[in-house]
Amino acid sequence: MITRNVICLKAVVYNIYLMNSKEKKEYIIRVYGDPVLRKQAEPLTEINDDILSLIGTMSNIMDKYLGIGLAAPQVGRSIQLIVVDLALGNDALKLFPMINPEIIETSGSWTMEEGCLSVPDIREKVIRPQHVHVRYVNTDGNEMEMEADDLLGRVILHEVDHLNGILFVDRISSIKLQLLKKSLRELSKNSSLNVKEQSG
Ligand SMILES: [Zn+2]
Question: Is 50 exceeded by the pLDDT of residue 136?
Answer without folding.
Answer: yes
